[in-house]
Amino acid sequence: MRKYPLQHLEQLRTETSMLPGKNIEIIVKPSPGEDRPGYIDPAEFALLNEHWAGATKNPEEQPAEMPPIEVMLPAIRESMGFPNYNLNTVEIHTRYEELKGSGNRVGLWRHYPRKSSGNVKRPALVFFHGGGWIGGSVYTVENICRLIAELADAVVFNVDYSLAPEKPYPHGLNDNFNAVKHVYDHAEAYGIDPERIAVGGDSAGGNYAAAVALKARDEGSPKIALQVLIYPCVVMADAAAEGYEWKEELFDISPEHENILRGGLLALGKPKKLQDDLVAALYVSDETDIRNPYVSPMLADSHARLPRALVVGAEFDGLRVQTEFYAEQLAQAGVEVKCLRYKGMTHAFMDKLGHAAQAEDLCTEIAEAIKDL
């Protein structure tokens, strides 16, 4: 089920433009139905107004004192994600198992098209959902994983990793790294090509994908052929690599949309002390951890010999600055990089599969990158 015309998908494929960077060219995807600079995509804007993320609150209505995190956490987790649609046109098989190699019980879902079940050399994607390391769900990204499986004729694994603060760093990283290693070590049993395994994720999941790629390079295994980084957080709190700078002036904001953007949507990724960053402080407890490359991949001593990358940002996502900076870092280190910017979109737009054409287009981009392996 789609809530947009197929024409919007065609526009996203054919009406792109190029934005030159230092080491890369950023492919800018259009905002169907909105040509004016500084405006949120019309479909995205309508969804934001219906969803909690688009709500702006009067500061006078805010509580004088924030409730304890134990009280806030269930509500924060409940608010994450967006109900989306199944766009599959073929039968997708789904299987489930549990892994324990990381010391935690980790659910591993896998999706693949029934028609290709006899193909023993399919590519694979191991996907890590977003949710700020403290929330999110494999169920939010299930339709996304299923669609990519169909479009790429691939096996897509969806990892139900441990969440902070109950299981802070490095639990989630270890869970995800172990899941990729498990998939690689059992490639033949899964009917996949061990030379064509990709890792990917959105937001915090993108952080995990980048960190897993770094760790796999450092340890020499498992072999990863592609990293798909969807509006990833690649630097934590106020840590920064040389040359990196976040400033609001990097965003073109229309007066009509100023309140909703400055009121919260662009705050994500804005540097702040660890103690002032609620989500980051729940994931890492030691301030020195924010400079660990497996927490802040931007700070790795070297980005050489990492797998090729598809790096995706949204125009009105506060994480866009670090997303595109990381793409530049990878390219400067000799990594093959394709960098996309979705004009008019905000953070977590991929969750809106079936509601926003950009989410479906991104699934197509990911599938094409996997097929090119």
Task: Describe this entry's structure for a reader.
This is Alpha/beta hydrolase fold-3 domain-containing protein. Belongs to the 'GDXG' lipolytic enzyme family. This protein is α/β, with parallel strands linked by helices and 373 residues long. The chain has one domain: 3-Layer(aba) Sandwich (Rossmann fold), CATH 3.40.50. 31% of the residues lie in helices and 18% in strands. It is built from eleven helices and ten strands. The protein has helices spanning 6-14, 42-50, 69-79, 142-152, 171-185, 187-190, 204-219, 258-265, 278-283, 320-332, 357-371, and strands at 17-20, 25-29, 92-99, 106-113, 122-128, 155-160, 192-202, 226-230, 308-314, 337-342. The protein has a ten-stranded mixed sheet, with helices on both faces. β9, α10 and β10 form a beta-alpha-beta unit. The longest helix has 16 residues, at 204-219. The chain is globular. The two termini are 30 Å apart. Residues 52-62 have low confidence and may be disordered.
Q: What key phrases describe this protein's structure?
A:
10-stranded mixed β-sheet; alpha/beta; 373 residues; AB_hydrolase_fold; GDXG_lipolytic_enzyme; Rossmann fold
